[in-house]
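Lay summary. Proteins are chains of building blocks that fold into shapes, and those shapes determine what they do. In this project we predict the shape from the chain. Here is one chain we studied, written as its sequence of building blocks.
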Amino acid sequence: MDVTNETLAAAAAETVALAPETASFRDQIIAALRTVHDPEIPVNIYDLGLIYRVAMDSQRRVEIDMTLTAPGCPVAGEMINWVKDALLTVPGLSDIEVNLVFEPPWDQSMMSEEVKLELGFT
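And here is the predicted shape, written in a compact code that computers can read:
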């Protein structure tokens, strides 16, 4: 699946249409993802735009597609484990799968507006 800024925006908008308990579960997942920080940029990976997709099902299985700021990141394998460890703090999760993807390549436009302001990119 090709991930573009448009599909990222559409995925974010899906949260509004979810049932309350699912939206709450998604909020818990996002909160857990926000505890993981990129080692080179002092910002959490969710607001940095490294999380491309959060998928979950009724059995509380979660699949994450994420990327790195650079394909040659020396902590790529560790970062996947950091994400899994953070997600293990979410009560009731039954399974976690984290996929490392590189399409589309990450760039600064994927950061949240707050992070752009914090890092002086706007």
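What the prediction tells us: Residues 20-33 form the longest helix (14 residues).
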